[in-house]
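Customer escalation, tier 2.

The customer says the design service returned an amino acid string that "doesn't look like it belongs to this structure." They asked us to rerun it and document both sides in this ticket. The original structure tokens are below, unchanged.
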């Protein structure tokens, strides 16, 4: 593939014999900043590639009705990889063809999408593919769409996205309510990213704030102060925070709490809850657990240089019936464990259950998990230039908890 222009989300060549599928995909991709080139056969695809550079290829593995072996697609995958070893190919197959998808990745495909696809999953996969292709050419990866950081197609997830879109640019104080793991720190980052504020996002755990409130407010000047577990802020620190806010500091306040905030001072409560956003549990979000887990499986596979692991039918059913404990954060942890520890090509319900079970495993498993934890902590610290606050936020930990793990692993 020649080099495509990088002034758009990406140029995608979609090879599929179904015109209805191509039309639907073209509309979806066009609405999301991509340009799609359709091809109904490998012959058309070669003609398209001769005339235009593309960032990624979306390849249906079967071109003849009634044929599900994927042989035609495998042949073309081999041909395109032979022509351009850096080509990024995402294969498309039905849920019944999961083993075919795994085989295609072993043959050189970068990822896969199941039919019927989730729009969010398809867009996320293509953004990853474009970033991978541009990275191979030495270009900066295409920026991620902040909307998709909050993964999910459910009405509940869409309500949160709508509230974030409305509140973010206003500068109004926002209170985030939700159980542990539902994504409060993620939404805080989204609110800051879309606020247009030039200053930093400074996170402060109210449970151990102490005199750090003063320093945090100063550090967040021109940016956003994220007060986690605000209901735990001691009375003395509540007064200190109010006094600082009353001085007219240029700080946007985003607070989070797992429970009620009625024990806070009335005047402080009035300052923090101009807008309230309730974050739903996975049980209220339909199939979002599947989309979230698939997202993190791809993310960690890319991060650790492993092949993506698809979910089989039993795993999909388990996620619909009973998502792992820990809400979205639990899914993130399960995905990272799966990528680091699992030898399975396909994740089953039994494998998911094993990976999300409480820590009562034998000593050998404990050793593997300890090594995995060290790997995760080291990687996060490297990515953030050893900025403990930023690394802790990515890992879903408080600064104190991250420091404990750094000491534990000699980091």
């Amino acid at each position: 593939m020649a080099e495509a222009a990088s002034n758009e989300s990406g140029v995608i060549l979609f090879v599929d014999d179904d015109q209805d599928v191509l039309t639907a995909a073209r509309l979806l991709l066009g609405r999301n900043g991509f340009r799609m080139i359709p091809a109904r056969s490998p012959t058309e695809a070669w003609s398209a590639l001769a005339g235009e550079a593309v960032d990624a290829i979306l390849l249906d593995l079967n071109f003849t009705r009634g044929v599900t072996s994927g042989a035609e697609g495998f042949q073309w995958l081999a041909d395109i990889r032979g022509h351009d070893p850096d080509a990024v190919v995402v294969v498309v197959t039905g849920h019944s063809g999961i083993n075919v998808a795994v085989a295609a990745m072993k043959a050189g495909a970068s990822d896969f999408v199941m039919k019927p696809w989730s729009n969010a999953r398809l867009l996320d996969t293509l953004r990853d593919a474009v970033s991978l292709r541009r990275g191979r050419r030495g270009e900066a990866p295409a920026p991620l769409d902040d909307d998709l950081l909050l993964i999910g197609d459910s009405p509940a997830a869409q309500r949160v996205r709508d509230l974030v879109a409305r509140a973010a640019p206003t500068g109004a104080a926002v209170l985030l309510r939700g159980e542990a793991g539902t994504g409060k720190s993620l939404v805080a980052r989204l609110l800051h990213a879309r606020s247009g504020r030039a200053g930093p996002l400074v996170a402060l755990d109210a449970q151990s704030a102490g005199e750090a409130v003063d320093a945090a407010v100063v550090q967040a000047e021109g940016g956003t102060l994220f007060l986690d577990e605000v209901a735990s802020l001691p009375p003395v620190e509540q007064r200190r925070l109010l006094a600082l806010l009353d001085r007219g500091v240029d700080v946007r306040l985003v607070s989070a709490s797992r429970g009620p905030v009625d024990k806070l001072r009335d005047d402080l409560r009035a300052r923090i809850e101009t807008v309230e956003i309730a974050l739903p549990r996975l049980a209220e979000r339909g199939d979002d657990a599947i989309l979230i887990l698939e997202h993190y499986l791809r993310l960690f596979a890319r991060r650790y240089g492993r092949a993506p692991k698809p979910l089989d039918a039993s795993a999909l059913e388990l996620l619909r019936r009973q998502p792992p404990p820990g809400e979205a954060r639990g899914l993130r942890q399960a995905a990272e464990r799966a990528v680091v520890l699992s030898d399975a090509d396909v994740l089953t319900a039994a494998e998911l259950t094993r990976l999300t079970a409480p820590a009562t495993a034998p000593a050998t498993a404990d050793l593997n998990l300890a090594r995995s934890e060290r790997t995760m902590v080291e990687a996060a610290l490297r990515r953030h230039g050893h900025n403990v606050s930023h690394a802790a936020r990515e890992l879903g930990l408080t600064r104190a908890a991250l420091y404990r793990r750094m000491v534990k692993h000699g980091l």
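Tier 2 assessment: The sequence is consistent with the input. The two ends are 43 Å apart (CA to CA). Residues 155-279 form a domain with the Rossmann fold fold (CATH 3.40.50.300). Sent an explanation to the customer and offered a walkthrough call.
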